[in-house]
Design brief:
The chain is α+β, with helices and mostly antiparallel strands and 143 residues long. The protein has a single domain, classed as Alpha-D-Glucose-1,6-Bisphosphate, Chain A, domain 4. It is 24% helix and 49% strand. It contains three helices and seven strands; from the N terminus they run βαββββββαα. The protein has a seven-stranded antiparallel β-sheet. β4 and β5 form a beta hairpin. The termini are far apart.
Length: 143
């Protein structure tokens, strides 16, 4: 099945602690890639986002999905695996502290799983390619 990866880095005028806190807010992810309508978040004991439910829109049809955190290092790196019946993927957010600013890099890899998403893959890929940098810029505006 087809796949694609996109990455974008923003520089924020905030500490890595602040950037991390925003990345743990489930609503932050409603604006990244195919993710919308985030609900039912759960958290690890240290406050790190663990899971949430979300919706993907593929070819005008909505698909329920789940996101699960993967390996993470507080204030440095956060990973999530996304899954629906039509689309799966991974998001990796990396925080690099500077002085006085902080770099935040968000990378998304998505792959099609079903015939519908494979058929719409060129349009999905184009939409992500054109919109992803702005989505990450918008995410950064909340930091």
């Amino acid at each position: 099945m087809p796949s694609a990866t996109f990455s974008h880095t923003v520089i924020v005028d905030a500490t890595s602690d602040r950037a991390w806190a925003v990345l743990q807010d489930p609503t932050t992810w409603e604006r990244i890639g195919p993710v919308s309508n985030v609900t039912n978040p759960t958290f690890h004991g240290d406050g790190t986002l663990k899971t949430f439910d979300w919706v993907a829109d593929v070819g005008g049809k909505k698909y329920d999905g789940e996101a699960r955190s993967g390996a993470y290092t507080v204030n440095e790196r956060f990973t999530m695996t996304l899954d629906t019946s039509e689309i799966a993927g991974d998001i990796v957010a990396t925080i690099t502290p500077g002085n006085p600013s902080t770099d935040v890099t968000v990378e998304i890899t998505f792959r099609t799983k079903g015939m519908l998403s494979a058929m719409f893959f060129p349009a999905i890929k184009q939409a992500l390619a054109s919109g992803f940098p702005q989505q990450v810029e918008d995410l950064a505006s909340g930091i």
